[in-house]
Amino acid sequence: MRDKRIAGIYIRVSTEDQAREGHSLGEQEDRLKKLCEYKEYTVFKIYMDAGISAKDTNRPQFQAMMRDMKKGNINIIVAYKLDRLTRSIQDLEKLVYELEKYDCGLECAVEEINTSNANGRFFIRMLTVLSQLEIERCSERTKVGVEGAVKKGHYLGKAPLGYKKEDKKLIIDEETAPIIRRIFEEYSEGKTLYKIANGLIMEGNNLRKWKDYLIQKIINNRAYCGDIILRKSLPNVEPILFEDVIPAIVDKSLSLRKTQKPLLNQIGLVKKLPLIRDIKIKI
Predict the structure, then answer these.
(1) CB within 10 Å: which end of the chain, N or C, has fewer?
(2) Is residue 45 part of a domain?
(3) CA distance 215 to 185
(4) Which positions are catalytic?
(5) Coil, strand, or helix at residue 132?
(6) CA distances from 236 to 90, 140, 231, 233, 239 (A)
(7) Cα-based torsion angle of the residue sequence 242, 16, 109, 73 in order, rounded to the nearest 10 degrees
(8) In sequence order, which ranges of 177-280 are alpha helices (DSSP H)?
(9) In the chain, which residue ranges form alpha helices assigned H by DSSP?
């Protein structure tokens, strides 16, 4: 006679998952309940993480399930697919270790997964390796597609002040571009960020809520001299510079010279704008 199985049903879906695969929370729950009934598992609780990615295990209901496992409230985890639990090889290793430590099983509805033996544990690791490979391939294809689009002059995101967007490309907006040229010219003449912003406010210019940090952001935007930088905000990733891919509002030599000088804010503190160093240039 087999030991009594007390199951924790785990279901998860992100917006992208549902759009791509169509496995809603309700569909997963219904199928897993039927599986538990067929195998005579007693369902202790259903753990549901809605709209959350499996990039890590920092999910409220996943963590609640693991706590219940450690307390002995459940001795088998039932999920629709392995990727509902994790898409990370490192997180999978931790999960398998915890399952073994607390003598808890794992079963997936659409995959032949059995963690009670060495073959089953090997199989579960192979599935995650293949899943990770597909994620990385998809990321590479996306990267190539984005770089190709930028080379054609496509601009990702909302058009900066001074431009407007047509067919994914930026064109100069002659109604607002003079404001950008004025900001660069006044800064090159030695005006502080505060004085430039205050001058626009005093004239009644309401295109933006003018502040010194907004002026600084404009001056430091390489788009205004025709360039686009990708991945500049990603940690530990080398930025990529695409030169002369969009129409320039200001002369490049003037723009680069300005972004290399110290900036004085309204309370007299010297700020140093980030310099563009060691940037890989794409042509």
Answers:
(1) N
(2) yes
(3) 12
(4) 14
(5) helix
(6) 19, 17, 10, 9, 9
(7) 100
(8) 177-188, 193-202, 212-219, 252-258
(9) 15-21, 25-38, 60-71, 82-85, 89-101, 118-151, 177-188, 193-202, 212-219, 252-258
The SS3 of residue 109 is coil
| Rounded-to-integer distance, Cα 7 and Cα 31, Å | 14
> What CATH number has the domain bearing residue 107?
3.40.50.1390
Share of the chain above pLDDT 70, in %: 81
| Domain match, 175 and 128 both | no
| pLDDT tens sequence across 19-29 | 345 467 888 89
pLDDT score for 17: 52
Please give the single-letter amino acid code of residue 215: I
CB-CB contact of 88 with 13 (8 Å): no
Overall number of domains in the chain: 2
131, two tokens: 């899943």
Dist CA 265 CA 262 (whole Å) = 10
Q: For residues 115 and 122, what is the distance between their CA atoms, to the nearest angstrom?
A: 9
Q: Identify whether residues 163 and 80 lie together within a single domain.
A: no
Residue in this structure with the two tokens 């409230």, named with its chain if needed: 73
Beta-carbon count within 10 A of 91 CB: 17
Cα–Cα distances in angstroms (integers) from residue 134 to residues 21, 66, 116, 121, 141, in the given order: 15, 27, 27, 20, 10
For 37-74, what is each residue's pLDDT tens digit? 999 999 999 999 988 877 788 899 999 999 999 999 99
